[in-house]
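Q: Convert this sequence to structure tokens.
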Amino acid sequence: MNPATCNVRLRAWRDDDLPAFTAMNADPEVMRCFPQPLTAEESQEMFERLRRGLAERGWGLWAVEADGRFAGFTGLAEPKFSAPFTPCVEIGWRLRRDCWGRGIGFAAARIAERRAFDKLHLPELVSFTAASNERSRRLMERLGFTRDPRDDFLHPNLPENHPLRPHVLYRKRKPATAGQARPD
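A:
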């Protein structure tokens, strides 16, 4: 699937997304850069949390649909931990393995980014991941996010010697619009 021909949209969650969502979260390769795959119960709880978040705020992590099929999720979230860069809004994603490498993540993240900057008027987005997550890091860079190694951090929700604890932080400022002065 070519990104130019892939029909990607972000939408509200539907009941029929739950089986594919649960399977995605149970896939060890999809969850390789997370502490562990999720159980069916954990996926159900997360699914309900994501739905509630969209209903309450009007933004959050949306279901991604690609060519009429559930592909994963992409959107905006407020980290629930304390770090030098919080409070902030992060952009994040998780896709089914059969959707990798097809431009779906890039297209979905662009839609979420436009909502963040154009509708929510956020001045900046962050994105972070385990330092070993090369796939997500490449997507962040392709989206125009930049990394300052001084911002990298140890994830406070992971044990001290956990291999995924070292995280990288990427940032992207809201682009200047036509007629708006750009900062020097």
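The longest helix spans residues 40-57.
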